[in-house]
Design brief:
Strand content: 25-35%
Helix content: 25-40%
Radius of gyration: 21 Å
Low-confidence stretches: 1-5
Structural class: alpha/beta
Strand order of the largest sheet: 6-5-14-15-16-13-17
Order of helices and strands: EHEEHEEEEHEEEEEHEEEEHEEEHHHHHH
Mean pLDDT: 94
Number of helices: 11
């Protein structure tokens, strides 16, 4: 166990959000002990597609501290969206809109950043419980249990967050998880375009093809927890006649889908990343919003240490981002309410209304408020008003 200084910040989880928050706190407070407890034996093991919007990444401010470099394996200009039957949308911008990341390299860049500032990382450390001012964890190599006191605790421990369970122990909340299954394959792919496949074969999310190059891609599916994602994956490949040469690897994981919380601060404990449901419910993507939450959580702790400001400032700083996540959540539930026929008809109608051209110019995969209402205010879009009213109810 590391004996820290008088002020000790413990971060549970060594993903991008946890490591980024740890770095920002240690950088601002070199005299403070910052410790990351990571359950795995290395940084960067993930089932994530690694697809992030370029404009959204700029809002994380991480580009001030790292150069993405070889962690970017591809750049994407748009997406093809396939309905359950005949519907098809193709949205392609003239500029690159998203990066496809090598998550191992990306996460390890943030790890190296944190280590350079003096952050300590304890691997194989599984947090099993949290109490007021103490965190309890097990060394998975020795099976020995330890406890560690903290001045501030950041929960960055993902979908099945132990810190969140402590945080929300007095509240009832519905756990909504997506079970994702993904394979990396060799084949022939249009490297500038992501493909999304909608329908009840993937109830809960959708199927996807995310190219890493013209000869390699990540193909996956997300379904409601309790459904078999591998069976759904096989159905997905058959239904849309998706071909590839060979499988390179496979992985599965859990994605939290939930309405934004009302509060992310409990005494001296804060939630970031997937642990705080900073995930776009429409896509399951959480890298950018997780990094944004980490940045703002670090600001709140730094301001508490240096200026004695209340930690609840963190909640205030999150408001505009929570509005975006709430729109994503409403859209997710709205689309889930559609039958296959209704979903196909909606996509066909959007195509007739020239939504492809509009999204090519105005679309934003992270911040829907920046374009959604502009689209609906166009006179020819008034026919969508009944659908908009349905959307608002969710």
């Amino acid at each position: 166990m590391i004996e820290g200084l008088e002020t000790r910040i413990v971060v549970v989880g060594g993903g991008p959000a946890g490591l980024y928050s740890a770095y920002l706190i240690k950088q601002s407070n070199p005299e403070v002990s910052v410790i990351v407890l990571e359950m795995k034996n290395e940084i960067g093991k993930s089932c994530c597609t690694g697809l992030i919007s370029i404009s959204g990444f700029e809002k994380t401010k991480l580009d001030r501290y790292i150069i993405l470099g070889d962690s970017v394996v591809n750049k994407v200009q748009g997406a093809e969206i396939f309905g359950p039957y005949k519907a098809f949308l193709r949205i392609r911008s003239k500029k690159n809109q998203a990066y496809v990341l090598n998550r191992r390299k990306f996460d390890q860049k943030i790890r190296d950043l944190a280590l350079s500032a003096g952050v300590d990382i304890l691997y194989n450390s599984q947090v099993i419980n949290v109490s007021e001012n103490k965190v309890y964890y097990m060394d998975l190599k020795t099976n020995q249990s330890y406890e560690m006191s903290y001045t501030f605790l950041i929960g960055a421990d993902g979908a099945n967050s132990v810190v969140r369970n402590y945080f929300l122990q007095d509240k009832e909340y519905q756990k909504e998880f997506i079970h994702a299954y993904q394979v990396v394959v060799e084949g022939d792919f249009e490297k500038e375009m992501v493909q999304v496949y909608l329908g009840d074969f993937a109830k809960g999310l959708f199927g996807w093809v995310v190219p890493e190059s013209s000869t390699q891609a990540k193909i996956g599916i997300g379904v409601n927890l309790g459904k078999n994602p591998q069976e759904a994956f096989t159905l997905f490949l058959e239904k849309f006649n998706i071909k590839f040469i060979k499988r390179i690897s496979e992985a599965s994981g859990i994605i939290p889908i939930h309405a934004p919380l009302d509060n992310f601060v409990k005494d001296n404990v804060l939630l970031v990343g997937d642990a705080g449901f900073f995930v776009k419910a429409t896509t399951g993507g959480g890298i950018n919003f997780g990094l944004i939450s980490a940045n703002l959580a670090a600001d709140a702790i730094n301001n508490r240490i240096k200026k004695f400001k209340p930690l609840l400032e963190y909640n205030k700083s999150l408001k505009k981002y929570l509005n975006e996540l709430n729109i994503h959540y409403k859209l997710h539930n709205y689309l889930l309410s559609k039958t296959n026929t209704e979903l196909d008809e909606l996509l066909i109608k959007l195509k007739q209304l020239n939504v492809e051209k509009f999204l090519e110019k105005k679309g934003n995969m992270d911040f829907p408020s920046e374009f959604m209402y502009l689209f609906l205010l166009k006179p020819k879009m008034f026919s969508l008003f009944p659908e908009f009213m349905k959307f608002r109810k969710f």
